[in-house]
Fold these 2 entries.
Entry 1:
Amino acid sequence: WVFAIFIISLEVRPFHHSLPEIHRDVIKTIKVLRFSWGRGFLYIFSGGMQLCLITTFNMIAGGVMMLIGIYCIIIGKSSE
């Protein structure tokens, strides 16, 4: 649940919904999450943990999350 709160607080701002306290605290505490590549590593880590729960849905969700993480790292590194 902790990783889900982190991811939601990071991604909800572009959609004009705000969780200002949580977003501010997460970015202030873990500065690497300001960057796309930093979020990509979080997504890969979260997807890997999801993948370890051996059910069909969890393996699909974990795999998708890891692919999104790889995509974020590629996009983040190419934009530097």
Entry 2:
Amino acid sequence: MLAWIRHWALAFAFLLAVLPTVCGVNQPPLKIVRRSGQQMSSSSELEPGGRWEHDSDEEALALEQADPPQVRLQQDDSVEALALAQERDVAAVSLQVAAPPAAAPPPPSPAGQSSSGAAAAMVAAGPRDYTVELLRTMPHADRPWTQGLEFASDGRLIETSGDYPRGSGSFVRVLNPTTGAVAQKVSEGMDGPDGHVFIEGISELDGRFFASTYEDHKAIEYDSNLKFVRSHDFPHIGWGLTHTPDRKSFIATNGSAYVMLLEPGSFKLLSATPATCMGKAVEGLNELEMVDDFLGHGPALLGNIMNTRLVLVLDPSTFACRGAFHLEGLEPSDANENFGFHVANGIAYNTQTRTFWVTGKNWVSMFEVRVSEDPKLATGQGALQMLSMHLSTSPVLVGR
């Protein structure tokens, strides 16, 4: 995800370039063009009726480099358009989704209510804060560039690390969840035409492991013993990867606000839906984790938000948020976290202990934590307050 860091630097430079606009020179409002899921230029507030657009690379660059820069606005929400945009290395097509209407808190759940009903009631009641209790600290062996973290069905702790620094090589490894020691490490299948591929998320499906790659357009398949099986075409930018609750599809992210459903085997795009919270789209969901029963409320999709220590809890059927928790106070912070280094990345749920293992890129430690509900935080404190600040510059979603 070095491109993410480069694009932030470009965005800062661009802001300096548009200072005359801020100072009152008569120029049209500047909108956002996103390529590879990253912000290429600055933006004014989205005007009523304003829309986002996908363009070809040539159009986007021409509009961005115009003097003054301009971007045409055009609505396009179709899955086909998203697929086309990804082929052209344009990750965001549209951020037009209906903002959830305000709803009164639901009545107490009757006895015997299904977990899906409880989950729907939670979403209707609005997002919640969750608390994190530190249980144990474990060494993060060799401090890798963590991209994926998952407990296998047999209890092994699986971690992927991207090829950073460049030339260090991507790999998948098995960790002893008691000591943190490396039990197995493999890099088979990670050679590409330009050297090592950059491995990203990993997910177990039907007894095999599948890992996505960043810009290499490959998904790597391993058997249950992490022996390389084959590579698959992966026509997407790869960030997080997990599976749906029914294990019939993959769930993937690409740095934009979109959460994609992918067909196993072909990795064909089945659908793309923005992750939303507080009436806004949430960009930059990175490492993903599917929890089959989150705190007794049914399935939940968890995701690290890039460049923050926030973890978003989403309804996996709508990708609307149920709540959030944060990882502040675990690993000491680093000033470079605002630029994509040393960021929190990696969530693994242990179904036996009902606890989570969390870590980050080049973190010294891994942490076993327990996540729980706290009624005292249900009014918008803690993680939700941090999330609100994080989303303060995001455009309000307008109707489809």
